[in-house]
Amino acid sequence: xxxxxxxLGLLVLVMSFVxxxxxxxxxxxxxxxxxxxxxxxxxxxxxxxxYESLYPDVDVINATVTGGSGVNAKAVLKxxxxxxxxxxxFQVHAGQELIGTWVLAERMEDLTFxxxxxxxxxxxxxxxxxxxxxxxxxxxxxxxxHRSNVxxxxxxxxxxxxxxxxxxxxxxLTIAPKxxxxxxxxxxxxxxxxxxxxxxxxxxxxxxxDGWESLWAGELSWTSPEVVETWExxxxxxxxxxxxxxxxxxxxxxxxxxxxxxxxNIMGDWASGYMSTTLGLEAGTGFGWxxxxxxxxxxxxxxxxxxxxxxxxxxxxxxxxxRTVGSREGQDIFNPxxxxxxxxxxxxxxxxxxxxxxxxxxxxxxxxxxxxxxxxVANERFMNDFATVMEIFLSxxxxxxxxxxxxxVAAQAGIGF
Amino acid sequence: xRTGKDRLLAGLMLAPSLILLAIFVYGFIGxxxxxxxxxxxxxxxxxxxxxxxxxxxENYRQLFTGILDIRFRQDLVNMVFFTxxxxxxxxxxxxxxxxxxxxxxxxxxxxRTVFLFPMxxxxxxxxxxWRWMLQPRGGVNVLPTLVGLPxxxxxxxxxxxxxxQFNWQWVPGALLLTAGLVLFLLGIRAWRRGExxxxxxxxxPGAVVSLIVVLGNPGGWxxxxxxxxxxxxxxxxxxxxxxxxxxxxxxxxLYLAGLRAIPGELKEAAEVDGATPLQVYRYVQLPLLKxxxxxxxxxxxxxxxxxxxxxxxxxxxxxxxxxxxxILMYLTTFRGNQFAKGASIATLLLLLxxxxxxxxxxxxxxxxxxx
Amino acid sequence: MSRGVPPSTNLAxxxxxxxxxxxxxxxxxxxxxxxxxxxxxMPVYMAIITSLKDPAAIRLSTAWELPDPVxxxxxxxxxxxxxxxxxxxxxxxxxxxxxxxxLGSMNGYVLSKWRLPGERYIFPLIVFGMFIPYQSILIPLxxxxxxxxxxxxxPGLVLVHVVYGLPITTLLFRxxxxxxPDEMIQASSIDGAGFFGIYRWIILPLSVPAFVVVIIWQxxxxxxxxxxAVTLAQPGSQPITVALANLAGGNAVQWNMPMAGSILAxxxxxxxxxFLGRYFIRxxxxxxxxx
Lengths: 417, 371, 291
What we know:
The complex is a heterotrimer. Chain A has three domains: 192 residues, 3-Layer(aba) Sandwich (D-Maltodextrin-Binding Protein, domain 2), CATH 3.40.190; 94 residues, Periplasmic binding protein-like II (D-Maltodextrin-Binding Protein, domain 2, 3-Layer(aba) Sandwich), CATH 3.40.190; 80 residues, D-Maltodextrin-Binding Protein, domain 2 (3-Layer(aba) Sandwich). In chain A, 53% of the residues lie in helices and 13% in strands. In chain A, the strands form four sheets. In chain A, strands 2-1-3-13-6 form a five-stranded mixed beta sheet, sandwiched between helices. Chain B is mainly α. Chain B contains 14 helices and two strands, in the order αααααβααβααααααα. In chain B, α13 runs antiparallel to α14. Chain B starts with a helix and ends with a helix. Chain C is mainly α. Chain C has two domains: 48 residues; 216 residues, MetI-like fold, CATH 1.10.3720. Helix content of chain C is 72%, strand content 0%. Chain C contains eleven helices and no strands. In chain C, α1 packs antiparallel against α11 and α8 packs antiparallel against α11. Chain C starts with 14 loop residues before the first helix and ends with a helix. Chains in contact: A-B, A-C, B-C. At the B-C interface, α1, α3, α4, α5 and α8 of B face α1, α2, α3, α4 and α5 of C.
């Protein structure tokens, strides 16, 4: 007995290690990496609560990195991935921001099997799935949908000033001088990314949805007359914007229409949430919205999504998280709080506010295209350099120079290859 | 006296620090430089084993001559102007404050604290507060309305106005000419001191370089095929103000310490000689503050060259008119995934910083030799 | 010293005049100082009133007006965010400050009082470390910390702050110790004191002013640091600057929250400057910051 004592001891030791390890696998940790804080925090927390109620043994770590328009989060995420320490899952804009960086680098797992298991092919629009996929698979689960091409206004003010909502940019350019004559800024604008945001609505109007898609497929050249026309039109529109735009956040640009200093504002539909929740305006009467001029019937979308990195520290718990994220219940908890809509065609619209219901209807009935500024259609390298292209345009106001620069950026970033 | 054993101990005590710095400073710098010589940033740059090729100085060539890298060149210009104005403003204001406080005063402690406390803040805090202060429709711009004057309209951090413009193509020529002239003047000085050999070694190449620049066609040396104007963006004024608000207390403390360290007898002697307070200040006190100014320039200069958090918090990443290379490096690397190019910008930043610190090191070494 | 100074003859006659000038001078001096103090305090005033406003009541046009009614919401939110990170910040700042000060003091002692071979190159090589832009070494730094299993926790952060603090602490102490006369060292080494004896009985007791400067400087730097904090620490070990960035960097900015957060985050270091500012200047007076 005594001779075998040490063996027994070893056995106990090994057993306890095995036991400890298996216990860890059952409870496990799930680190969710995102840049959601402030106003967007509560929606994520509610979704995490839902997950915790389904999987009470998993210890969720909500790792948020904010600031610097999301650049800080990218720095931390990339440093960690390069250092071989991926989080269990991370927030990323659906589309090329994910595909051009992480899928290309073979850092993500294909989620087609999950889409099949959960029946998501039946409830998500085909055009959306196309934007999330490459030939080799589907790479993330979208949690929300925002619309980029929305024009906001205050109905009461428009009546007072005697103008209608412009349906095309030509209409806008005719009414803009009238507004200006009354001392009203026709279109309020904020810091530089909101100019890119404006450009994508303008370009969509000029190129149409097919032209827009062929631009990103590399079939339409950046130096073609149509694309040069987008810059020229942008230049004419900028004549009717506020001179202090680069100093304003998008919220302050929205404030300008609420305060009656400006007539229109083009922003993603998170502005609806800002006006109804933070400013307490009634959707439809307190503030109104329309597709940005010339984009009727087109839904320029962007989405936040979560994926499954290869080497995710807790694959099972992460898959469970992705199931929760993609479920109808999960989405209908998250989106009303976030002020976005669910990508699912079967969501319970009674849970959403007036704007949300209207957006959900448009989501089901419109042609869907992807946004540039918010990471759907172009990779990160293009996005980063496109800010410089915009800078060149803003300082030179030269449409041809901007087109040439954009062509060079597209070639370097491999757009359409 | 000091035994060999003690010297060994001294070396051993220094060793851990040296090893740590060798890894954390020189090892990592080496890694950054070697990355800067590659093309890491093409295609799947974040792959586990990204495809990386050695490309020599290609990234540097692009930064100085590429059309799309115009932002880098303007950022560089922004940084130089920022450093210049920030350091000068801090020195000036610090000296003013110290001179005012260096008198018998009631409430000196209060004033000193008021001028010193911004130093305690992080640049993120300063940036947040000043971003609010410099809003075009609020903050500083509406101050005049409180006394019935019209509102200011200046766009503190976003104005597109530029002054002191110059053509980038002339930069290499101008730098060479400056270097040549400095060498030449140093040579003349050596000649006057009677160090003929040294004079020749300095003045001759100096004269040759200057002549080449003057007679040559320096506009073509930049490698930039077109004229490219750069200048001081007025939007930087807002950043300079915020930074100087934060750091002028530091120069004040330095100068105040310096002024108090001047023996009273020196001042008294001058006063007995009939010097007015202003003359005492000008001829007795100021000259003694010179070494302090030197170390202040080094400390402030390195803060200015590395400035990042403050601008990031004040204007965000995409406000090109107030951007500097440190911000561009961060964006290029972590948003644009161009790791090699980011590393090149970092390397250039380091070179610039070395340009600042090398004279300081040389002078401190010289002092060491004199001791 | 009398170069350029005119000889003064009728001092007595000018005395009354001089007194009047002096009084006017004092009024002007206080006037200028008060004006400057107001300018320096303006941002603080702005931060405090904004932090106490209700988010809906924050408008650019009324930015300078006092809050009415006062809302503590910003502080409540900020405190909630900061509470879990406060301990991390203190542990990190205190331990990294003390370690880097001690190591810096030892380095300064060795470099100023022990002629080592190659010393004239070692010192500049150490000081140069102060000048690296840290973003540029982030990736290798992360990989290194992970390879020695120090990524993610406070010990790793302490190590990083100690290492990157060494250049400046070494610089400050070395310059400070250079002013201590070598004769004192020689005298005591004749008395039989060795390397540590001299440090313990001569250098350390004289170092208090330098320690004050170094500790204040380092504590402030480490307390306020953001980049390492956000990249090298897992959520459980993050210091409060990360929480501050979360307050200031969320998508919808309600200005009362970042302002309240800024004030709370700055409180410890500002208090240090208020209470120890005098010693800070005295420490500089003792020569530790002279070239």
